[in-house]
User: Fold Glycylpeptide N-tetradecanoyltransferase from Babesia microti.
Amino acid sequence: MEMSSSNGDDRPVSELNDSINDLMLKLSLQSGEPKGSTEFANSADKLSRKGLKTLSEGNIAKLFGNTNHKFWNTQPVTQPDQKLTENDFGPISDIDTVDKVRSDPYPLPSGFKWVVCDIHQESDRLQIYELLRDHYVEDMEKLFRFNYSQEFIKWAIAPKGYIKDWHIGVKIESTDKLIGFISAIPCKLSLSGTLINAAEVNFLCVHKKLRSKRLAPVLIKEITRRVNLKAIWQAIYTAGVIIPTPIATCRYWHRPLDIRKLVQVGFSGLGNRMTMSMAIRIYKLPEEVPKYFRPMQKKDVPQIHKLLCNYLQKFKIYTVWTQEEISHWFLPQKDVIYAYVKETDGKITDFTSFYNLPSSVIKSDKHKILNIAYSYYHVANTIPFENLINDTLIIAKSMNYDVFNMIDLMDNRKVFEKLKFGQGDGDLHFYLYNWKFPPIKPHEVGIVLM
Assistant:
């Protein structure tokens, strides 16, 4: 895997910052109008049309949102003028050998140093948290900003089998302050039935005031080098902009749970003929949590593993998990991940899950946090999928979430209209590095990347 920007130009470091992340869409501020409620006007949707971006997305668009694609034209990715058929499948460049990989870290500008961040050390974890909190994502209106918890970050980048050396930081030598970060985790992917070892790259972040130092390209090259040293040559990543070349393009949908709060913080707005009481009635959910669901437990792991493996096999791309990985990604952790099962006579037949990613509300006297639940994985066997998701919404509402977000991948799109989801404006593009893969439809995607 090679994600360098070694073409000798002077582009700002932030131009590459979102190319391996799904930063914009995870914040999910492009909420649209639910069908059947044409009077509901979502101001977040207006914000996205006015140019809602992550901190660096504007620069990225200049680099990748044109026909030149100077950086990606040099990389082993499918190019825009290539038309792939179902027979075009496999590595783009020859598999290399580890002994050809650079052995030393890439040089940094004077005054900076490489560090390996220990996510299990409180001091390191706090520095990562503070860097992401202050410099990772906010909307252009400066109304909302991601508020990853330390426990969420640890969960996201330290699954079973993670590689500590892939948690890369850049610090100022004189102050020991963390001003740059990138991470990757190993994963096994099924691509149309072919299994490959890959890296999932995420959390590329550079301090706002230091983006003229061109640290982001160096971070990308360094994570590439370290991944290659483990004989891994493919990667999966997402972006909110089009670069060469998506294997799939999906879209976020949003289901308001507390419309009053969403309006109060400026996330949503009401149309001229829509009153608050009308909006509340539109989005009202039952208060009683479904009794047939219970939280997932450790003893459920083997059954959940089998359930998910069987379900995901119908998709053209998905993650292949071990039971240990199922334990990590799905066993409930407060304010991180929630999973529920339906069990009958000792057999688990249905499953639902979502993760917690709040946003700080920057300019509101009434509220400081917007509680957002993000759809994860769902399997419905004995109850209709629509009922499963509706019951998940009821659970999320009972936990005081303000909005529930889903992507239109897997089977999700089937429920959006009936359950009053609003379509977002932005797309989430999925990419594979160094692997030819003909484009697929959203419903053929079986993987969720955070």
Observations:
- The radius of gyration is 22 Å.
- The longest helix spans residues 122-135.
